[in-house]
Amino acid sequence: MFSAGAESLLHQAREIQDEELQRFCSRVSKLLQEDLGPATVDALQRLFLIVSATKYARRLEKTCVDLLQATLSLSTCSEQVQVLCAAILREMSPFSALTLSCDHMQNPHQLSLVASVLLAQGDRREEVRSVNQRIFAILESRQPEGPSLRPLLPVLSRVVGLAPGTLQEDQASLLSKRLVDWLRYARVQQGTSHSGGFFSTPRARQSGPITEVDGAVASDFFTVLSMGQHFTEDQWLNVQAFSMLQTWLLLSSPEGPGTADAEDRSELEGSTLSVLSAASAGRQLLPQERLRKVAFEYCQRLIEQSNRRALRKGDSDLQKACLVEAVRVLDTVCRQDPSFLYRSLSCLKALYGQLGTDAGSERALLPLAQFFLNHGAAAAVDSDAIYQHLFTRLPSERFYSTTLAFEVTRFCRDNLPLFDPHLLGLLKLSFPNLFKFLAWNSPPLTAELVALLPALVDAGTAVEMLHSLLDLPCLTAALDLQLRSSQMPSERPLWDTSLKIPGCLEAFRDLQFQPLFQHLLRTKASGSTERLVPLYQLLQPMASCARVVQCAQAVPTLLEAFFSAATQVADKALTNQLALLVLERSDVLYQVPQYKARVLRVLSSWFLALCKQKPSLVLELARELLELVGSMSNIQSRAEMFTCVVWAIGEYLSVTCDRRCTVELINKFFEALEALLFEVTQSRPSANLPRCPPQVVTVLMTTLTKLASRSQDLIPRVSLFLSKMRTLGQSPATSSVYSEEDVEAIRTRATELRNLLRMPSVAQFVLSPSAEESQCMAGPDMICSSHSFTGRGYP
Amino acid sequence: MVHAFLIHTLRAPNAEDTGFCRVLYSCIFGAEKSAEDVRPHGAERDRLLRKEQILAVARQVESMCQLQQLASGRPPSDLQAQTSDEPVSLHEAPRGVFGLAAGDPFQEPRTVVWLGVLSLGFALVLDAHDNLLLAESTLRLLARLILDHLRLLAPGSSLLLRADHVEGILSRFLPHGQLLFLNDQFIQALEKEFSASWPR
């Protein structure tokens, strides 16, 4: 649809030169002065495209601009021309040459158009205030048979949103009073069709009553869920008034939204509940109070109307949106006036019980939860059921709905300060369920979950959470299988139908693997961990499907967020556990393309961070580390992790880091690393000589040197070894494995280390981490920079 | 309230990378107060910033839509032009929501609701606490109206030189960015009004 023709049109509009543009402007000016017919419309449409097509400002001829502004105020031209003039001026905004003003305007429709231009100026010259003044001038002088006020309310709503403090007290009162009229007292008769224009006498036709969404005659006052063939002015205003109600309530309240301390508020609410609101029935209500009362009644009515079975799908959708809004407005009303709380609570508890199961009705759950969160404490309401629903049922049943996923995560994020310890605990335990939202909808949900994750991290569940994060792509695959297995054939498939995976589906249904799948799909933290290795194999056919890959791409970011938070709450024991987990899982991952490499990068750097935070880690995990460096296969399968581990050993295995470090231990590590280095560089050439990255060789050499500097009996051994490195690359086997540069660099490094070892005390000083130095060490990527004079770019 | 509405091009995922994501129409409803910028070209800089913010949103929507298409396995032909007269069923069209953090690209944190129809993307940039359900149905309504009134399903038609139609629709169904609770009959009444004042 975006054809080559359109592309070229856009190109022309952007490329038009200044001179040609000014000529065109003259033409437009001429047309605006003479004729406002189709030719003018055509020209204006082109001018709009020219102005809007580029992000750089276009300078239009002054006459043209003046005429555009003048035409806006002309009541004789067609709406099409006026709209185009306004649009062009708005597209140029902000610009300083604007002379348009709304002073003395009487017509709401015109004011609306002019305001769209004025409000785009960025309030440089107090345009918001002048528009506001004009609106109220019109409102106050309202003639009963004057032009329709319909265009006015949206502008007003915008003005209030842009600058809440603009309205004066009497203006605010006036608006509240009018809103009360429009919300509560719109007529319940249908309008007649005005074929003769607004001012003609209406035909003497029987106009029927307004009906409800299910066709029944309207049972009470008019609302947005009332139906009719033709609508009257006040009914239109009813719709607009409700549409802006929430905004107005929030912005017009003297305290502003959510300023009261939660505790104070619930105390106040609790004490107010026991006082009947009848106490205030005697005196005259202030406009703001009347508005709240009417808002309350309107919302109650909407909730009742939402229970009816709508005849049309569009209306059914609207009922759901109205339900959400009604609950939100009730929440605001109760926050501003706790005397409404008692009646609201009973109404909303009933609503919760009645929420249907069709798609869309669960969206009302969120404002309900918000309401109970804000007010439940005061009424001692046990809102546990609703939170259970929110954290336990909803994610497992509707993880595939992106908007729901987004709303739930946002709800959690926004309301964290309000969660009491019990609720916070429930939230933390529900992390496996919340992860389902991310596993299925990773692109939009990643940022949201990264923001929420720190609150979910808990010392008690950190280990389990790390496993879950690493297995997220697996979870995506499992959720896909769950959908395929459970969805009715008549419904539109939510999964990728082009992907045929009968084997995986069979495995999903196989009783043998039930426990593993159930663990993966659990809704709450179980306190235990399961090794899902068998599943990785079974789900291999799904590893490259797009949704799994997208999830896999999000995991590194989440890991970063996780570790940042976990390292802050981890005690010594947990640090050890996390480090061990990192080592263990670095080789045990679901094989999604490029997943392992990306995850290893993050895990490696965090392993080092853990060691830095707790230097005695290396010593306490000595057994596991020895195992890791004891095997050649570890170099190939997880080179980056291996490199980090070896570097960490070199850095932190010393008495200065932990007094329990013995010479025996240093020797043990030394022997293991020496053997490895020998195998990699000196062993008999064979076809199976593994490709060992040169970084591994250098880190091994450096670490051996460091260890030797601490257990000086080892120095001769190391020196000998290092001197043998001079022959590296001379055997045909190694020369095919390493490039010239690599070999050269390794040799140079070996020489430097040997030279260092000739001065043992200097070596010891230089190669041991002091508190200062370890700050500037950048880690194994800059292994050469362990001291200044061997600083080279080669790792 | 809605901060901005935009229509932009949507390329199919994995298409050969030809061209850019283009914003075909955008409307920002009332600008935030400009910073205290008294330098001579402050106004132009403001405008430039707004345009770039809109383009940033369009690009993100395109990327989200493409990722969603890939993940759900919908064939790319879904996004090609239809020649039949059947109305496009918008309930099945790819759609989604995502958040924009403060400063990236707008000053305030915002939320974007988007819809992809054929090779056009429609998006609403909302304030952080708007009624999402209403925004979604409003967006569907706007897309349907624009597609119908501009007959965008017919080959060769384009919306570039008919922005006034879009403006007319917006002024009735999303005036100044105000989301309206319109039931079916109100919508019908407004549509009649619009068709009457706007020659096709």
From TrEMBL, chain A:
Q: Which ranges form a coiled coil?
A: none
Spell out the GO cellular component terms annotated for this protein, sorted alphabetically and separated by semicolons: AP-5 adaptor complex
Matches recorded under InterPro entries = AP5Z1, AP5Z1_ARM, ARM-like, ARM-type_fold, TPR_AP5Z1_C, TPR_AP5Z1_N
Which Pfam family is one of those matched by this entry? SPG48
Q: Where is the AP-5 complex subunit zeta-1 C-terminal TPR domain?
A: 448-775
Could you tell me which residue ranges the AP-5 complex subunit zeta-1 N-terminal TPR domain spans?
A: 1-278
Residue span, AP-5 complex subunit zeta-1 ARM repeats domain? 318-436
The protein's matches in Gene3D superfamilies, at most eight in alphabetical order, are given as: Leucine-rich Repeat Variant
- Give the protein name, as stated in the record: Adaptor related protein complex 5 subunit zeta 1
Organism of derivation = Cavia porcellus
Q: What is the lineage of its organism?
A: Eukaryota, Metazoa, Chordata, Craniata, Vertebrata
Q: Which gene encodes it?
A: AP5Z1
UniProtKB/TrEMBL annotation, chain B:
Q: Extract one GO BP annotation from the record.
A: endosomal transport
* Stretches of the chain forming a coiled coil according to its record: none
Annotated GO CC locations? AP-type membrane coat adaptor complex; cytosol; late endosome; lysosome; nucleoplasm
> Which InterPro entries does the UniProt entry name for this protein?
AP-5_subunit_s1 (IPR029392)
Lineage: superkingdom:
Eukaryota
Name this polypeptide is given: Adaptor related protein complex 5 subunit sigma 1
List the source organism.
Cavia porcellus
